Amino acid sequence: MKEKRSPSQLEASWKETDMAGGQKVDAMVMIMRTNGCCWVREGGCTMCGYREASLGGVTEDDLLKQLDQALSRYRDEPFVKIYTSGSFLDDNEVPPSVRAKIFEAFKGCQRILFESRPEFITDESLADVPANVTVALGLESSDPQVLETAVHKGFTPDDILRAGTLLKSKGLGVRTYLLLKTPFMTERMAIEDAVRSARFADQFSDEISVNPLNVQRGTYVERLWKRGDFRSPWIWSLIEVFRRLSGTVDARVMSSPSGGGASRGVHNCGECDKAALDAVERFSYTQDPADLDVKCECQAKWRAYLESEAILGTPADLDRGLENDLALRM
Ligand code: SF4
Ligand SMILES: [Zn+2]
Protein backbone atom coordinates (compact mmCIF):
# COMPACT_ATOMS: atom_id res chain seq x y z
CA MET A 1 0.00 0.00 0.00
CA LYS A 2 1.27 3.46 -0.84
CA GLU A 3 2.32 5.41 2.26
CA LYS A 4 0.11 8.45 2.91
CA ARG A 5 2.27 11.55 2.53
CA SER A 6 1.81 14.44 4.88
CA PRO A 7 1.63 17.89 3.27
CA SER A 8 3.63 19.38 6.13
CA GLN A 9 6.63 17.05 5.63
CA LEU A 10 9.53 17.80 3.33
CA GLU A 11 9.63 15.32 0.46
CA ALA A 12 13.38 14.85 1.00
CA SER A 13 16.56 16.65 1.93
CA TRP A 14 20.23 15.77 1.65
CA LYS A 15 23.71 17.23 1.47
CA GLU A 16 25.96 17.30 -1.59
CA THR A 17 28.61 19.50 -3.16
CA ASP A 18 28.27 22.13 -5.88
CA MET A 19 29.92 25.37 -6.94
CA ALA A 20 29.43 28.81 -5.42
CA GLY A 21 31.65 31.79 -6.12
CA GLY A 22 33.97 29.65 -8.25
CA GLN A 23 34.66 27.21 -5.38
CA LYS A 24 33.47 23.69 -4.66
CA VAL A 25 31.27 24.03 -1.56
CA ASP A 26 28.82 22.04 0.57
CA ALA A 27 25.19 22.36 -0.42
CA MET A 28 21.92 21.46 1.24
CA VAL A 29 19.13 20.25 -1.04
CA MET A 30 15.52 20.44 0.12
CA ILE A 31 12.60 19.10 -1.87
CA MET A 32 9.35 20.70 -0.81
CA ARG A 33 5.89 19.21 -1.20
CA THR A 34 3.68 21.75 -2.92
CA ASN A 35 0.48 21.80 -4.93
CA GLY A 36 2.63 20.79 -7.89
CA CYS A 37 3.62 22.06 -11.29
CA CYS A 38 0.82 23.97 -13.05
CA TRP A 39 1.80 22.33 -16.34
CA VAL A 40 1.02 18.82 -15.04
CA ARG A 41 -2.68 19.76 -15.26
CA GLU A 42 -2.15 20.27 -19.01
CA GLY A 43 -0.56 16.83 -19.34
CA GLY A 44 2.96 17.77 -18.22
CA CYS A 45 6.24 17.15 -20.00
CA THR A 46 6.80 13.77 -21.61
CA MET A 47 9.74 12.82 -19.38
CA CYS A 48 8.58 14.32 -16.08
CA GLY A 49 7.55 12.08 -13.20
CA TYR A 50 7.07 14.97 -10.78
CA ARG A 51 3.32 14.51 -10.57
CA GLU A 52 4.25 11.75 -8.08
CA ALA A 53 6.02 14.28 -5.83
CA SER A 54 3.29 16.87 -5.54
CA LEU A 55 0.10 16.89 -3.52
CA GLY A 56 -3.06 19.00 -3.51
CA GLY A 57 -4.21 21.21 -0.65
CA VAL A 58 -0.78 22.17 0.70
CA THR A 59 -1.30 25.25 2.88
CA GLU A 60 0.96 28.11 3.84
CA ASP A 61 1.24 26.59 7.28
CA ASP A 62 2.34 23.26 5.79
CA LEU A 63 5.07 24.98 3.79
CA LEU A 64 6.34 26.82 6.87
CA LYS A 65 6.52 23.52 8.76
CA GLN A 66 8.59 22.14 5.89
CA LEU A 67 10.87 25.15 6.17
CA ASP A 68 11.30 24.46 9.91
CA GLN A 69 12.33 20.88 9.13
CA ALA A 70 14.85 22.10 6.60
CA LEU A 71 16.25 24.60 9.10
CA SER A 72 16.61 21.89 11.74
CA ARG A 73 18.89 20.01 9.30
CA TYR A 74 20.73 23.09 8.04
CA ARG A 75 24.37 23.34 9.12
CA ASP A 76 25.36 26.65 7.53
CA GLU A 77 26.07 25.16 4.12
CA PRO A 78 27.00 28.05 1.79
CA PHE A 79 24.67 26.79 -0.96
CA VAL A 80 20.97 25.92 -0.52
CA LYS A 81 18.92 24.37 -3.31
CA ILE A 82 15.15 24.50 -2.97
CA TYR A 83 13.23 22.25 -5.34
CA THR A 84 9.45 22.12 -5.48
CA SER A 85 8.94 19.71 -8.39
CA GLY A 86 7.51 22.70 -10.20
CA SER A 87 8.03 26.47 -10.05
CA PHE A 88 9.13 28.20 -6.85
CA LEU A 89 7.84 31.52 -8.25
CA ASP A 90 4.33 30.16 -8.89
CA ASP A 91 2.16 31.71 -6.13
CA ASN A 92 -0.04 28.62 -6.18
CA GLU A 93 2.95 26.48 -5.17
CA VAL A 94 4.81 28.86 -2.87
CA PRO A 95 2.88 32.02 -1.87
CA PRO A 96 4.93 35.26 -1.80
CA SER A 97 4.71 35.42 2.03
CA VAL A 98 6.35 31.97 2.30
CA ARG A 99 8.98 32.88 -0.28
CA ALA A 100 9.86 35.93 1.81
CA LYS A 101 10.31 33.75 4.92
CA ILE A 102 12.51 31.32 3.00
CA PHE A 103 14.69 34.16 1.68
CA GLU A 104 14.95 35.58 5.18
CA ALA A 105 15.91 32.19 6.64
CA PHE A 106 18.75 31.72 4.14
CA LYS A 107 19.81 35.33 3.70
CA GLY A 108 23.24 34.58 5.13
CA CYS A 109 24.14 31.91 2.63
CA GLN A 110 26.25 32.53 -0.39
CA ARG A 111 23.91 31.05 -2.92
CA ILE A 112 20.26 29.95 -3.17
CA LEU A 113 18.95 28.09 -6.20
CA PHE A 114 15.37 27.34 -7.21
CA GLU A 115 13.59 26.38 -10.42
CA SER A 116 10.84 28.19 -12.30
CA ARG A 117 8.96 28.03 -15.55
CA PRO A 118 9.48 31.27 -17.51
CA GLU A 119 5.87 32.50 -17.27
CA PHE A 120 6.38 33.15 -13.54
CA ILE A 121 9.54 35.19 -14.07
CA THR A 122 8.38 38.80 -14.18
CA ASP A 123 9.47 42.18 -12.83
CA GLU A 124 6.84 41.75 -10.15
CA SER A 125 7.83 38.24 -8.99
CA LEU A 126 11.52 39.20 -8.97
CA ALA A 127 10.99 42.38 -6.95
CA ASP A 128 11.69 40.65 -3.61
CA VAL A 129 14.20 38.08 -4.83
CA PRO A 130 17.58 38.66 -3.14
CA ALA A 131 20.88 38.98 -4.98
CA ASN A 132 22.20 35.58 -3.80
CA VAL A 133 19.62 33.76 -5.94
CA THR A 134 20.22 31.66 -9.03
CA VAL A 135 17.14 30.62 -10.98
CA ALA A 136 17.25 27.32 -12.83
CA LEU A 137 15.43 27.36 -16.17
CA GLY A 138 14.35 24.13 -17.89
CA LEU A 139 15.04 25.06 -21.51
CA GLU A 140 15.66 21.39 -22.49
CA SER A 141 16.17 22.23 -26.19
CA SER A 142 16.52 25.39 -28.25
CA ASP A 143 14.57 23.76 -31.08
CA PRO A 144 10.95 25.00 -30.86
CA GLN A 145 9.64 21.90 -32.62
CA VAL A 146 11.41 19.54 -30.24
CA LEU A 147 10.01 21.47 -27.28
CA GLU A 148 6.51 21.35 -28.66
CA THR A 149 6.25 17.82 -29.97
CA ALA A 150 8.85 15.66 -28.19
CA VAL A 151 8.87 17.35 -24.77
CA HIS A 152 5.41 18.98 -24.69
CA LYS A 153 6.95 21.81 -22.69
CA GLY A 154 4.21 24.41 -23.15
CA PHE A 155 6.62 27.28 -23.79
CA THR A 156 9.11 28.24 -26.46
CA PRO A 157 12.89 28.83 -26.39
CA ASP A 158 12.13 32.53 -26.82
CA ASP A 159 10.15 32.48 -23.55
CA ILE A 160 13.29 31.19 -21.82
CA LEU A 161 15.44 33.76 -23.61
CA ARG A 162 13.15 36.52 -22.28
CA ALA A 163 13.19 35.12 -18.72
CA GLY A 164 16.96 34.53 -18.73
CA THR A 165 17.66 38.03 -20.05
CA LEU A 166 15.39 39.56 -17.40
CA LEU A 167 17.12 37.59 -14.63
CA LYS A 168 20.54 38.73 -15.84
CA SER A 169 19.35 42.35 -16.05
CA LYS A 170 18.49 42.10 -12.34
CA GLY A 171 21.94 40.75 -11.50
CA LEU A 172 20.63 37.28 -10.63
CA GLY A 173 22.28 33.98 -11.54
CA VAL A 174 20.94 31.63 -14.23
CA ARG A 175 21.47 27.89 -14.47
CA THR A 176 19.91 26.44 -17.61
CA TYR A 177 18.95 22.79 -17.88
CA LEU A 178 19.21 20.99 -21.20
CA LEU A 179 17.75 17.58 -21.84
CA LEU A 180 20.15 15.20 -23.56
CA LYS A 181 18.12 12.93 -25.85
CA THR A 182 14.47 13.80 -25.94
CA PRO A 183 12.15 11.11 -27.31
CA PHE A 184 12.32 10.35 -31.06
CA MET A 185 15.95 11.46 -31.36
CA THR A 186 18.82 9.29 -32.42
CA GLU A 187 21.96 9.47 -30.33
CA ARG A 188 23.69 11.66 -32.90
CA MET A 189 20.72 14.04 -33.16
CA ALA A 190 20.73 14.27 -29.36
CA ILE A 191 24.40 15.28 -29.27
CA GLU A 192 23.89 17.92 -31.94
CA ASP A 193 20.72 19.25 -30.31
CA ALA A 194 22.44 19.61 -26.91
CA VAL A 195 25.44 21.43 -28.43
CA ARG A 196 23.19 23.82 -30.38
CA SER A 197 20.99 24.40 -27.35
CA ALA A 198 24.00 25.15 -25.13
CA ARG A 199 25.21 27.79 -27.59
CA PHE A 200 21.73 29.38 -27.46
CA ALA A 201 21.64 29.21 -23.64
CA ASP A 202 25.13 30.66 -23.30
CA GLN A 203 23.88 34.20 -23.98
CA PHE A 204 21.94 34.34 -20.68
CA SER A 205 23.38 31.51 -18.54
CA ASP A 206 26.11 31.34 -15.92
CA GLU A 207 25.86 27.56 -15.91
CA ILE A 208 24.47 25.03 -18.34
CA SER A 209 23.48 21.72 -16.83
CA VAL A 210 23.15 18.93 -19.38
CA ASN A 211 20.68 16.38 -18.04
CA PRO A 212 20.68 13.04 -19.85
CA LEU A 213 17.13 11.74 -19.98
CA ASN A 214 16.39 9.40 -17.09
CA VAL A 215 13.28 7.27 -17.62
CA GLN A 216 10.89 8.10 -14.78
CA ARG A 217 7.89 6.06 -13.72
CA GLY A 218 4.45 6.82 -15.08
CA THR A 219 5.73 8.99 -17.94
CA TYR A 220 5.14 8.88 -21.67
CA VAL A 221 8.86 8.24 -22.14
CA GLU A 222 8.59 5.17 -19.91
CA ARG A 223 6.01 3.72 -22.30
CA LEU A 224 8.36 4.24 -25.25
CA TRP A 225 11.26 2.77 -23.27
CA LYS A 226 9.28 -0.32 -22.21
CA ARG A 227 8.50 -1.20 -25.79
CA GLY A 228 12.10 -0.64 -26.90
CA ASP A 229 11.47 2.63 -28.71
CA PHE A 230 13.81 4.60 -26.49
CA ARG A 231 17.31 4.03 -25.15
CA SER A 232 18.65 6.41 -22.53
CA PRO A 233 21.76 8.13 -23.87
CA TRP A 234 25.26 6.73 -23.65
CA ILE A 235 27.68 8.41 -21.23
CA TRP A 236 29.98 8.71 -24.26
CA SER A 237 27.40 11.04 -25.83
CA LEU A 238 27.41 13.27 -22.76
CA ILE A 239 31.22 13.31 -22.85
CA GLU A 240 31.09 14.15 -26.57
CA VAL A 241 28.79 17.13 -25.82
CA PHE A 242 31.25 18.35 -23.19
CA ARG A 243 34.19 17.96 -25.59
CA ARG A 244 32.46 19.96 -28.30
CA LEU A 245 31.45 22.74 -25.90
CA SER A 246 34.71 22.92 -24.00
CA GLY A 247 36.37 26.29 -24.52
CA THR A 248 33.62 27.52 -26.86
CA VAL A 249 31.02 28.77 -24.35
CA ASP A 250 31.39 31.20 -21.45
CA ALA A 251 29.00 29.40 -19.10
CA ARG A 252 30.21 26.58 -16.85
CA VAL A 253 29.05 23.32 -18.41
CA MET A 254 28.06 20.64 -15.97
CA SER A 255 26.05 17.50 -15.37
CA SER A 256 25.02 15.47 -12.34
CA PRO A 257 22.99 12.72 -13.97
CA SER A 258 20.26 11.05 -11.97
CA GLY A 259 20.06 7.31 -12.47
CA GLY A 260 23.52 7.23 -14.09
CA GLY A 261 24.77 3.70 -14.81
CA ALA A 262 21.27 2.14 -14.66
CA SER A 263 19.31 1.04 -17.73
CA ARG A 264 16.77 3.85 -17.16
CA GLY A 265 19.55 6.44 -16.95
CA VAL A 266 22.60 7.48 -18.93
CA HIS A 267 24.80 4.37 -19.29
CA ASN A 268 27.60 2.64 -21.19
CA CYS A 269 28.56 -1.03 -21.09
CA GLY A 270 28.39 -1.39 -17.31
CA GLU A 271 32.15 -1.96 -16.91
CA CYS A 272 33.20 1.65 -17.48
CA ASP A 273 30.10 3.50 -16.24
CA LYS A 274 31.58 4.53 -12.91
CA ALA A 275 34.83 5.79 -14.43
CA ALA A 276 32.94 7.68 -17.14
CA LEU A 277 30.53 9.27 -14.63
CA ASP A 278 33.46 10.23 -12.41
CA ALA A 279 35.02 11.95 -15.43
CA VAL A 280 31.77 13.86 -16.03
CA GLU A 281 31.76 14.97 -12.41
CA ARG A 282 35.42 16.05 -12.49
CA PHE A 283 34.92 18.04 -15.68
CA SER A 284 31.83 19.71 -14.20
CA TYR A 285 34.11 21.30 -11.60
CA THR A 286 37.34 21.87 -13.51
CA GLN A 287 36.07 22.45 -17.11
CA ASP A 288 39.32 20.78 -18.16
CA PRO A 289 38.77 18.50 -21.20
CA ALA A 290 41.75 16.37 -20.05
CA ASP A 291 39.46 15.19 -17.26
CA LEU A 292 37.24 13.54 -19.86
CA ASP A 293 39.92 11.06 -20.95
CA VAL A 294 38.35 7.70 -20.19
CA LYS A 295 38.83 4.60 -22.31
CA CYS A 296 36.80 1.45 -22.75
CA GLU A 297 36.23 -1.03 -25.55
CA CYS A 298 32.55 -0.07 -25.63
CA GLN A 299 33.48 3.29 -27.15
CA ALA A 300 33.79 1.50 -30.50
CA LYS A 301 30.36 -0.03 -29.96
CA TRP A 302 28.94 3.44 -29.24
CA ARG A 303 30.45 4.74 -32.48
CA ALA A 304 28.93 1.82 -34.38
CA TYR A 305 25.63 2.55 -32.64
CA LEU A 306 25.69 6.13 -33.96
CA GLU A 307 26.32 4.83 -37.47
CA SER A 308 23.68 2.09 -37.37
CA GLU A 309 20.99 4.42 -36.07
CA ALA A 310 21.76 6.87 -38.85
CA ILE A 311 21.62 4.12 -41.51
CA LEU A 312 18.44 2.57 -40.13
CA GLY A 313 16.91 5.99 -39.45
CA THR A 314 15.50 4.91 -36.10
CA PRO A 315 15.90 6.02 -32.49
CA ALA A 316 14.76 2.56 -31.27
CA ASP A 317 16.98 0.75 -28.76
CA LEU A 318 19.15 -1.25 -31.15
CA ASP A 319 20.84 -3.28 -28.37
CA ARG A 320 17.53 -4.46 -27.05
CA GLY A 321 16.14 -5.01 -30.55
CA LEU A 322 19.09 -7.30 -31.26
CA GLU A 323 18.69 -9.18 -27.97
CA ASN A 324 14.98 -9.73 -28.67
CA ASP A 325 15.75 -10.88 -32.17
CA LEU A 326 18.30 -13.42 -30.95
CA ALA A 327 15.91 -14.61 -28.22
CA LEU A 328 13.20 -15.21 -30.84
CA ARG A 329 15.57 -17.27 -32.94
CA MET A 330 16.66 -19.44 -30.03
S1 SF4 B 1 9.49 19.11 -16.36
FE1 SF4 B 1 9.10 20.95 -15.11
S2 SF4 B 1 7.61 22.09 -16.36
FE2 SF4 B 1 7.57 20.01 -17.14
S3 SF4 B 1 5.87 19.02 -16.01
FE3 SF4 B 1 7.81 18.60 -14.92
S4 SF4 B 1 7.96 20.16 -13.34
FE4 SF4 B 1 6.45 20.87 -14.86
ZN1 LIG C 1 32.49 0.48 -21.45
Summarize the structure.
This protein is 37% helix and 16% strand. The protein is α/β, with parallel strands linked by helices and 330 residues long. The chain has two domains: 1-115, no CATH class; 158-330, no CATH class.
* Distance linking N and C termini: 39 Å
**Runs with pLDDT <50, length 5+?**
325-330
Number of helices: 11
What ligand molecules are bound, each kind once? iron/sulfur cluster, zinc ion
Q: Percent helix among the residues?
A: 25-40%
Walk across the major sheet and give the strand order: 1-2-3-4-5-6-7-8
Q: Radius of gyration in whole Å, from Cα?
A: 20 Å
Shape: globular
Return the average pLDDT rounded to an integer. 93
- Number of separate strands: 8
Largest sheet: 8 strands, mixed
Reading the helices and strands in chain order gives: EEHEHEHEHHEHEHHEHHH
Structural domain tally: 2
Helix and strand composition category: alpha/beta
Explained architecture:
The structure is a single chain. The longest helix has 15 residues, at 187-201. Helix content is 37%, strand content 16%. It has an eight-stranded mixed β-sheet. It has 330 residues and is an alpha/beta fold. The two termini are 39 Å apart. It has helices at 60-73, 96-105, 123-126, 144-151, 157-169, 187-201, 220-226, 235-245, 273-286, 298-312, 318-329, and strands at residues 12-20, 23-31, 79-83, 111-115, 133-140, 173-180, 207-212, 252-254. Helix 2 links the parallel strand 3 (79-83) and strand 4. The structure holds iron/sulfur cluster (SF4) and zinc ion (ZN). Zinc ion is lined by residues 268-269, 271-272, 296, 298.
